Amino acid sequence: MPAWGLDVDTVVGRLVGEFTAPAEGDGAAQHAVHAEVRVRAIDGRVVFMQWREQGEGDEPGELTRQRLWSVVEDGDGVVLRFFTFHDHAPYVDLHKKPLIAMALRSEDLRAYPDSCAVRLRDVDGRIGGSVAASDCRLDTDAYGRNLSLEYALELDAEGFEFHEGAFQADGSLAFRMPESGAYRFRRR
User: What is the tens place of the pLDDT at every residue in 97-131?
Assistant: First the structure.
């Protein structure tokens, strides 16, 4: 184990799985699938994350989040880097499409800047990290807006908590997920 007491295998082990979160505020209950995928265009161990609103019965609900997370070690610990897709549609259920995952090119992805990476720490068995909106600025999002993002992630053996907010250039709120607090996903 590295000197900082946290390794990539531990983080990936906590990230990967199927999870559910109850409805928060006006939002719907969520179902999350996180699966490790091989992507040549991204360094480190890559976890595909896909969240949907909880559907009726076995039917999947509306897609709410879709990202790739790269988990890497650097000289100071374990870092989580974020990627999204220019076009989300071809990558729905990417965890079931290993050849498409392998064939992803950097041109297919939108990498968040290094300043948006989350440096993870282990405190009493809970792995977590956060990024402030003042540190994470995207020149343009999928809708052509300049945004600053804030988010926090905390993992334990039972699941994870996550919240994300985005602010427009004038400081006004673009979105917050969930509207208040954090999603509390529990392993299925």
Answer: 999 999 999 999 999 999 999 999 998 889 999 99
pTM score of the predicted model: 0.91
Q: Write out the two tokens for 88.
A: 């989300």
Q: Please list, in sequence order, all residues whose beta carbon lies within 8 angstroms of the beta carbon of residue 56, skipping any fewer than 6 positions away.
A: none
Three-state SS string over the chain comes to CCCCCCCHHHHHHHHCEEEEECCCCCCCCEEEEEEEECCCCCCCEEEEEEEEECCCCCCCCCEEEEEEEEEEEECCEEEEEEEEECCCHHHCCHHHCHHHHHHCCHHHEEECCHHHCEEEEEECCEEEEEECCCCCEECCCCCCCCEEEEEEEEEECCEEEEEEEEEECCCCEEEEECCCCCEEEEEC
